[in-house]
Amino acid sequence: MLGPVILAASRSDRMRRLISAAPVTKQVVDRFIPGETVDQIVPIVRDLAGKGLELTMDVVGEDITTPEQAATARDAYLQLIERLRPLELGTRAEMSVKLSMFGQALPGGHELALANVRPVVEAATAIGTTVTLDAEDHTTLDSMFAIHEELRKDFPATGCVIQAYLFRTEADARRLAASGSRVRIVKGAYKEPASVAFQNKHEIDKAYVRVLRTLMEGEGYPMIGSHDPRIISVAQELARRAGRKLDEYEFQMLYGIRSDEHLRLAAEGHRMRVYTAYGTDWYGYFMRRLAEKPANLRFFVRSMVGKG
Ligand SMILES: Cc1cc2nc3c(=O)[nH]c(=O)nc-3n(C[C@H](O)[C@H](O)[C@H](O)COP(=O)(O)OP(=O)(O)OC[C@H]3O[C@@H](n4cnc5c(N)ncnc54)[C@H](O)[C@@H]3O)c2cc1C
């Protein structure tokens, strides 16, 4: 029950100022967002890749309000891609982008986001890798899927994300489970109303398994975004039943969460991709991580009371 309350409170400007300025916040943030600049993140990319892990890179900063900020966000990805080029990791280091950061919520936002994301996908393709479009709140998804479809005409490996908690997702999964598609399935991290989304964890987990079965039985490439041990073992079983080889699907987890499991799955021969976020505008990303696990919030509050 605490998760939706944290997500709702996180939209308040007062809360943002309070949390961002708290002296202890940065220490807790570092667990999930291991760098603020591209210089800080490149050694982390090298380290994770050296351990046999793959990466998807997210430059944080979804709450932009001007077209200039959207262009800055695009340039930050272009700079990152340039820095990845000499590492020659190919698809082992891909990008994850939030279209809101590229201007999707501004007037004329659909076209603006498409215009900003296209050069990023082009640049990623030029270094032999791909981009996945993250899923944000449900009001943004028609635009996200339309941009995904448009990008796939020129860059067929462009991926997208679907969220098990939404009622619409089973139909989206059926449409997307086609040859050549790359689809990440997650439970969903936003506060959504009961008119569009399951509210109960058990219902969400059941929906996740239904959607995952559709993806595994389909012809695309499923990317299982979850830390849930039950989901991981169900995914392995569904992959086995669908006759998929180890390189015909992959697991994805967030940096800083169940890191031992990242290494265990990679050591078993699975493709294991770590979603690695960096940047200065970490507030929205950080608050979703607090909302996912009440123990994170308790730890954070204890740190503030103890040291702040
Ligand atoms: C690679 C990746 C990409 C994602 N992309 C998106 C996206 O585009 N759109 C979107 O809406 N959501 C996205 N998410 C978030 C997702 O929707 C869930 O909110 C998040 O993954 C928690 O769900 P879970 O499947 O891990 O299961 P849960 O049942 O929430 O968690 C299972 C276990 O994992 C651990 N765990 C989970 N979350 C945390 C945490 N924050 N801190 C510490 N431990 C934790 C705990 O041990 C917990 O018991 C993404 C998640 C991943 C892994």
How would you describe this structure to a colleague?
There is one protein chain. α7 (141-154) links the parallel β3 (131-133) and β4 (159-163). It contains 13 helices and eight strands. The chain has an eight-stranded parallel β-barrel, surrounded by seven helices. The protein is globular, with a radius of gyration of 18 Å. It is an alpha/beta fold and 308 residues long. It has helices at residues 2-9, 13-21, 25-32, 38-50, 67-84, 109-126, 141-154, 169-176, 201-217, 229-241, 259-267, 283-292, 294-307; strands at 54-59, 93-97, 131-133, 159-163, 182-186, 221-225, 250-254, 272-278. Residues 134-135, 161, 163, 186-190, 225-228, 231, 252-254, 257-258, 275, 289, 292-293, 296 line the site of flavin-adenine dinucleotide.
Topology, element by element:
Layout: H1 2-9, H2 13-21, H3 25-32, H4 38-50, E1 54-59, H5 67-84, E2 93-97, H6 109-126, E3 131-133, H7 141-154, E4 159-163, H8 169-176, E5 182-186, H9 201-217, E6 221-225, H10 229-241, E7 250-254, H11 259-267, E8 272-278, H12 283-292, H13 294-307
Parallel strand pairs: 1-2, 1-8, 2-3, 3-4, 4-5, 5-6, 6-7, 7-8
Helix pairs in contact: 1-12, 5-6, 6-7, 8-9, 9-10, 12-13
The structure holds flavin-adenine dinucleotide.
